[in-house]
Design brief:
Chains: A alpha+beta (199), B mainly alpha (245), C mainly beta (371)
Number of strands of chain B: 6
Largest sheet of chain B: 2 strands, antiparallel
Largest sheet of chain C: 6 strands, mixed
Strand content of chain C: 35-45%
Strand content of chain B: 5-15%
Order of helices and strands of chain C: HEEEEEEEEHEEEHEEEEEEEEEHE
Structural class of chain B: mainly alpha
Helix content of chain B: 25-40%
Number of strands of chain C: 21
Largest interface: A-B, 53 and 46 residues
Oligomer: heterotrimer
Distance between the termini of chain C: 93 Å
């Protein structure tokens, strides 16, 4: 592992003497694994969205059930399908007390109809799955609150952080993980789900 | 006199359209076009922000929703509506979150500037509109950054005017931008690798560097590093804002 | 339709090379270590093997690391088992003396330049708590060369003013390692003073000596000339051109001279932990009037003996050991000698006590009147 790490950082230094390892993920104000539950509820953003059925959904309506959240867009062919694979792993590892929430970064293109089609194509059906579209401003607020970075490069391409966020039943961030879901994230999700069941 | 200043509308400077060279080019663009807009001549002062909080109690530090600002929000004030006397009320307001800054600008009928707008104006020296490649200007900006703390202790504002007539972009505090959370990425051709690599966030480390258009632009790297650390709730003693329209 | 990712091709290449290296290492390690119960990078055969290390030892207990400012070093470790070591380190920015009547706003680990010295034992689980003072203007992080992991911890530790980050690592390899800030732009954070050292003592411990000192060489690039009075700021052009204004030991001109000289008595054994933070220059480290009995070159595990001058790479370190036999001032220098004479790279080890005329005696010369 050491060989790879050094190579990665050396490349950063060599090519520009630049942001070597300053990640564009949010800087830690809490332990790096973001294992500590944050003191705020994402649901207090108070915004209103539309789900894949076209129904209006306030963030408040998600209270009471823990959620795994990812922000994706449907024209994304590379990292987003991988995020979905991770969400499905989490779906399999938990029961119905854990919700699975996908929010589009491209709300103009990803209408509720497009999201519904996407959900069918990727087998994300059933009551545990919610796919949300909203206003560009609400998307930005949610992303900025979760520490997700994104930028539209071309009409079809949005570069973005690949971050999975675990929210408890109150909407507090309990854990965040970049890339593949690790055992820690899965066990954290299981423990949240089990807390929600016994409640 | 003081009351008049508090009620005066913020002075907006008309910024002509143009382009600038961003630190990180995207999809091969060397320069990014910026449309004409207006930018506050000055940073938002503690006095102005106090007036906003009085008018909008939801943004008092003792009533703000925690999702909109972390625990440091206005914590450097003497009280919820009292910006205090230890620091001049004409100094920039700091320890404000992105949500709070945005709400302030909305209340003035304006908005936060985008990263592109802010950087476009910030590339101007006192005499040149695009001084981004001028070593003397870079050196001057680095020196301003290095000595901010010492100058913050001074009683009055700094007032360094650039070629557009905008003041104190570099000399006082870091400033919020509307899209501070724009991703930092390499260009398209280098990003065409397999998805498996894209999952590996080690690669921010190098890809961010690889996309840099000018490795000597240290002031821009510093600002970029600050933005990379922020979330919308973050407050910092060295972070304020100004509005645009 | 192409999706934009964040993975540039050079890294894919690096990854592949890394994978090959790891695979090779595994093969080598498996082959070489067959029947070898005690993994060691330098077995009796004398032929080095490549280890893919793992952690199997149980971590017993927990302690908070004692951290010291240069030239002091935390006490030797007497434990014979690995433990969890909590390291509390705070980054801060403050204006400090660079030379007489010359000030510089330094960015620090622990309020001083060089930063706090950290001492742990091979196999320890280190829990690194990095806080950034609320009045800092910049985010900071830490890349410890003793860490096996992404960015040496830098990725996990970007910390805003007023914030804290925590990560853990196991000190897998013994040795003396540099740490530094790796926040963009890295050269600026390092040129402003963000570096220090961490010693990972080998399991077998280190030989007893009478004095241990912490010395770190580094450069400062200021807009004013050497000695120009007032508050100086970074001249990045000089940095890019590798033309330092100051080359110093322990963060300022004169940090190891006069009252602040290192001390020893004739007949004592001295160990220096010497780092070179750079940001640019390699040090030709020499102690005028001594010969190093042992040099653990590059901070590694093999001792060379009877060395006059040892090279310390930027971002590297070395351990030198010697007995002092004669009273007087031993002079620490970078033997790239203009740096010592004109830029500040000079320190004193003051030796008191009685000498041995058999080792050194002046018989005739300008300093010897009336003999």
């Amino acid at each position: 592992m050491r060989v790879f790490s050094i190579a990665a950082c050396a490349a950063g230094l060599l090519f520009a003497g630049a942001p070597a390892c300053s990640r564009p993920e949010p800087a830690a104000r809490t332990p790096a694994a973001a294992a500590a539950t944050q003191s705020f509820s994402v649901y207090d953003l108070g915004s209103t969205w539309r789900d894949q059925s076209g129904a209006t959904r306030s963030l408040d309506s998600f209270r009471g059930r823990p959620q795994v959240v990812a922000m994706i867009y449907t024209r994304c062919t590379s990292t987003c399908p991988l995020a979905i694979v991770e969400l499905k792993r989490l779906e399999a590892a938990t029961d119905s007390s854990m919700g699975l929430l996908l929010v589009t970064l491209d709300p103009d293109a990803d209408t509720p109809q497009v999201l519904a089609q996407y959900a069918r194509e990727h087998g994300m059906t059933g009551p545990r799955w919610t796919l949300l579209s909203g206003s560009a401003s609400d998307v930005r607020d949610l992303a900025a609150t979760l520490g997700i970075r994104y930028r539209r490069l071309t009409p079809d391409d949005i570069a973005h952080s690949n971050l999975l966020t675990l929210l408890n039943a109150q909407g507090h961030v309990t854990r965040q993980h970049a890339g593949l879901a690790d055992d820690g994230l899965i066990s954290a999700a299981q423990s949240l789900a089990s807390t929600a069941r016994t409640r | 006199m003081i009351r008049l200043a508090a009620l005066a509308l913020p002075l907006l400077v008309q910024i002509p359209a143009g382009s600038y060279r961003p630190l990180y080019s995207t999809a091969g663009e060397a320069r990014v076009a910026v449309a004409t807009f207006r930018m506050d001549r000055d940073y938002v002062s503690r006095r102005s922000f106090a007036a906003f909080v009085v008018a909008h109690p939801a943004w008092r530090r003792d009533s703000v929703r925690r999702v909109f600002a972390d625990e440091g929000y206005l914590a450097n004030w003497a009280g919820p509506l009292d910006a205090g006397t230890a620091t001049s009320p004409e100094r920039p307001v700091t320890q404000v979150s992105w949500f709070a800054a945005r709400a302030y600008c909305a209340a003035q009928g304006s908005r936060l500037p985008t990263v592109d707008e802010w950087e476009y104006v910030a590339a101007a020296s006192a005499t040149q509109r695009d001084a981004s490649s001028d070593p003397a200007f870079r050196q001057h900006v680095l020196a301003l950054y290095a000595t901010r703390a010492a100058r913050a202790a001074d009683a009055g504002p700094v007032h360094e005017r650039n070629a557009y007539g905008v003041r104190d972009l570099h000399g006082a505090v870091w400033e919020w931008t509307l899209d501070f959370n724009s991703v930092v990425v390499g260009d398209d051709s280098r990003a065409s690798g397999s998805g498996a690599n894209a999952r590996d966030n080690h690669l921010y480390c190098a890809s961010a560097a690889l996309g840099a258009t000018d490795p000597s632009n240290y002031p821009a790297f510093l600002r970029s590093a600050v933005r990379a650390g922020l979330t919308a709730r973050t407050t910092m003693a060295s972070l304020g804002f100004r509005c645009a329209a | 339709m192409k999706h934009t990712t964040t993975s540039p091709i050079p890294i894919i290449a690096a990854r592949t090379i890394g994978a090959i290296a790891i695979a090779t290492a595994m093969v080598l390690a498996t082959a070489s270590l067959t029947g070898c119960a005690n993994a060691d990078a330098t077995p009796a055969s004398g032929r080095a093997v490549v280890l893919v290390r793992t952690t199997t030892e149980a971590i017993e207990g927990q302690e908070v690391a004692v951290l010291t400012d240069a030239p002091n070093v935390p006490p030797p470790i007497t434990r014979t088992h690995p433990t969890k070591v909590i390291v509390n380190l705070q980054t801060s920015e403050k204006t400090m003396r660079l030379a007489d009547s010359v000030e510089y706003t330094m960015w620090t680990f622990g309020g001083s330049v060089p930063g706090k010295f950290i001492r742990v034992r091979e196999g320890d689980l280190v829990e690194m708590h990095l806080t950034n003072a609320a009045n800092s203007t910049m985010p900071h992080n830490i890349d410890l060369h003793a860490v096996t992991g992404p960015g040496g911890g830098a990725k996990a530790s970007l910390t805003l003013p007023g914030g804290e980050s925590v990560f853990t690592f196991t000190a897998m390899n013994p040795g003396l390692f540099v740490y530094h800030c790796a926040t963009s732009p890295v050269p600026m954070h390092m040129a402003n003073g963000m570096y220090g050292m961490i010693l990972v003592e080998p399991k077998a411990g280190m030989a007893e000596v009478d004095h241990e000192y912490y010395v770190m060489q580094s450069e400062f690039y200021t807009h004013g000339k050497f000695g120009e009075h007032g508050l100086q700021t970074l001249d990045m052009e000089k940095g890019i051109e590798e033309r330092p204004t100051y080359v110093v030991f322990n963060g300022s001109v004169g940090a190891l001279t006069g009252d602040k000289a290192l001390q020893a008595k004739a007949g004592e054994r001295v160990r220096l932990f010497v780092g070179d933070a750079g940001p640019n220059l390699t040090s030709s480290f020499h102690v005028i009037g001594e010969i190093f009995d042992n040099v653990y070159a590059e901070g590694g595990s093999v001792a060379n003996h009877n060395v006059q001058t040892t090279m310390i790479p930027a971002g590297g370190a070395t351990i030198v050991e010697f007995g002092v036999e004669q009273p007087g001032d031993l002079i620490l220098v970078d033997h790239s000698i203009f740096r010592a004479f004109n830029q500040g790279a000079l320190g004193i080890l003051h030796v008191t006590g009685d000498g041995n005329a058999k080792i050194f005696a002046v018989k005739k010369g300008l300093g010897v009147v009336g003999q």
